[in-house]
Specification:
6-stranded antiparallel β-sheet
Length: 192
């Protein structure tokens, strides 16, 4: 003859099945009618940089474009260089940027580097570029493009770039006490 389970085991089974029933009922209620939010529907916060973040990707893109315009010239078409530079330069910056209007130089690959944020919406962007002077050999130069946030959040080139021969193309340059390369004068256009 089977024994009846003790009272304590019976109470435990009832409690277990009661908990399973409550969880099942709560799950079904959540599927049928989700709980209302306390303040109604809320829009997700807009993704993007915080107010303190500098737009590094946009600064790199501008620096690549500016370096290409700055390092490429053709005395047969000086208006091409002037037009490209005018699109990226801040008001009041000399659009010639040291070019005397003579010679030719082509730009190959342009590679953006680090962005070093400064004060008041300014930054410096390092760019390495492969150049081919009119009659000279192809070589690499490094250019530091000064970038600033202008009115309306638009980025502009705020002054003349600093350039030097890239370390990969010659023996290492002297370093400043802070470890930065010593800048050289801007590349000179090839003369015919």
């Amino acid at each position: 003859m089977p024994e009846k389970p003790p009272a304590l085991v019976r109470v435990g089974r009832i409690a277990l099945w009661g908990a399973v029933g409550l969880l099942a009922a709560a799950g079904l209620r959540g599927l049928v009618a989700p709980p209302p939010s306390p303040a109604g529907p809320q829009a997700a916060p807009a993704p993007g940089p915080t107010a303190a973040a500098y737009p590094e990707d946009a600064a790199r893109a501008l620096a690549v474009r500016a370096a290409h315009a700055y390092l490429a010239w053709d005395e047969a078409k000086p208006e091409d260089r002037a037009r490209e530079l005018a699109a990226v330069l801040a008001a009041g910056v000399d659009p010639q940027l040291g070019w005397d209007g003579r010679g030719t130089q082509a730009v190959g690959l342009v590679v953006p580097g680090p962005v070093i944020p400064g004060r008041a919406g300014r930054a410096r962007v390092r760019v390495d570029a492969q150049i081919a002077p009119g009659a000279g050999p192809v070589r690499w130069v490094a250019v530091e493009i000064p970038v600033a946030v202008a009115g309306g959040g638009r980025l502009v080139v705020s002054g003349p770039p600093r350039s030097w021969v890239s370390p990969s193309a010659r023996p290492p340059a002297r370093s400043t006490p802070k470890g930065r390369l010593t800048p050289r004068s801007p590349p000179r256009p090839a003369r015919r």
